[in-house]
Amino acid sequence: MPAPLEQADPRTNRTTLDWTEPGAFEVADGVYRIPLPLPLDGLHAVNIYVIDTGEGLLSIDGGWAVAPAREALRAALTSVGYGIGDIRQFLVTHLHRDHYTQAVALRREFGARVSLGVHEQVSLALVRTPAGRSHQTQLDQLVVAGAGAVAARLVAGGFAAGDEDIENLEAPDEWLSPEQAIRVSETRSLHARHTPGHTQGHVVFVDESEGLLFAGDHVLPHITPSIGFEPAPSHLPLRDYLDSLRRVRAMADLVLLPAHGMPGPSTHARIDQLLQHHEDRLQACLDSVGPAGTTAFEVAAKLPWTSRMRSLDDLDPFNQMLAVCETAAHLDLLAERGSVVVSEHRGRRVYQA
């Protein structure tokens, strides 16, 4: 993943390279950023944002249901005079477990209400089927992309086995409509905005009165979010993502409050970078397609990955999967634009310029 950039907290003007430092950091009046640890090698924390409603707390996202995250949340809330039981509602940006599962676990214990975007219904239903394998879709995509060997290594390592966290993937109390308004207090409201791409049901929350965007994984300051990494991705997740970025770009410029990384003063500035990044990757993919036909795996092997310009072979199998699936998403969008032609050959998707 790209190395983090040095940014300043918009409230305190405090500069840090380590946004994962535990605590509760006030980013606007009555709004606290709380980083919670993740059990991952590459991504070490997720930000949740807790809002004082005057009648308890509302949390944007919940974190991953693991003991260190719960303890970090307890300690952070205690430091500013609250307890976990003060959280009355979770507004969750999307279904990924680092955002959703702890909200469900705490609902079971304290009775908090959990809300999730309505377009996450299909993916959640697939995960919860008796034979649910939450990443089977990605394994199938790898085979079609010509990366069957990567899929085999993932399966051998236990990837896509039955979901061990199924109890924390229960349905929410409320399915949020794409443009739903949420009253937080007498002086504050949030508006959900449907922003598919990272997942089909991803939503961001806009606080127009304070000029804040609770962006989830839609707009991240240091990295680009994975595209369509979910049990039920759309036909063209990259198209969905770019369209969603443009819709948020058309709004007033807002303070960026991301799920991973430090807050930033301009949503517009980061969206412009993300849009340009994907146009550059689309061109790089197009330049790597040969006249005789090329698979997404073969294109991904020609491209550099992360800010360190690593080769595909240098990545671990999980990140190889993300790279190949993202390459396929770019190639499929190029096909939609008419820049490449797609055909099927022995169960693989082949692209020709």
TrEMBL record:
UniProt-listed InterPro entries: Metallo-B-lactamas, RibonucZ/Hydroxyglut_hydro, Sec-metab_biosynth-thioest, WH-like_DNA-bd_sf
Domain Metallo-beta-lactamase as annotated: residue spans:
45-260
Q: Which PANTHER family match?
A: ENDORIBONUCLEASE LACTB2, METALLO-BETA-LACTAMASE SUPERFAMILY POTEIN
The name this protein carries in UniProt is Beta-lactamase class B
